[in-house]
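Need tokens for this chain, all 335 residues.
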Amino acid sequence: MPRAPIPAPDGDSASSGREELATQERPQPMDVELSTSLRVLVTGADGFLGQHLLPRLISRGHRVRAVCREAPTRPGSQAPGIEWRQADLTKRESLAGIAAGCDRVVHLAGRFVAREESSLGREHGTGTRNLVWEILKTDVERIVFVSALGASPDAGEFYRTKFEAEDVVMSADLEYVILRPSVVYGPGDHFTTPIVRILKTLPVFPMMGDGTFELQPLAVEDMVDVLTQAIESPDVAGRSLDLAGPERLSFVRIVRVLGETIGHPRPIIPFPVGLARPASRVAAGLRLPSPFSTAQLDILRFGSVLPSDENPVRTVFNLKPLPFADAVTDYLEPV
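Here are the structure tokens for all 335 residues:
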């Protein structure tokens, strides 16, 4: 569908309110010859993806300006080559000069759950709009935006607001790469971590519906390889690419693999889909373990798989994506 022109900043977006399995031996990202290191601005730098991407960028000789809402406290955050900046993308005044002197922008910032004072439309739509307007004042050559597989104006709020953020990026007079990954998982993620917590805590695993809805999870190692190429390679400019792992897995299968990996297989007890959302809210209010936030339940409900057998992780980025069982074994220990 046609993309809308980029609106002026400061307003809420309209919606506020099967391929062959890979082996562990796989090609590395293309080795792009760089005449000089790049200055890369990364939003959401303290999040799951950012924590994995920043060390890669530093190891390749790039200089990083890492943007986050709160002061970073995690180990390694003060590594040489990283300049931290605090900013709230929904507040344009906090972004003044944020991209000055940068060559690339990697826009990772996003949320599954809205803050009390800010809707997902504001977090994704207005935040991206404010960032792009600031970028356009500079000599930034490219923005790499991480959206979501399934982003659409007709889906749930998370997907819808990600689609609106894509509109902002694609409508700007700026070279872009848009990446739409399926569920990305790895150490410190928001996908396998809550499942493992449930498996360790409860005698059974409460399953939303029959658990047959499918996902195509992508290992964070592969996502970081893709991001590295999207930052460095001239061959992917101006493209929007759906990304996923090598297997379409039912949620039941994912839970069973995780249970076996940590040595805590549990009986899976289905319960009505209609109870999943209120149960998640109650669990959060009582500080009880819950597999997912209400927004993540929407992602599961809509599924997250490629529309065809073609996977740009392989065909565009020349990678063999890691099988799920192999990748989780690398970072999950039996308990």
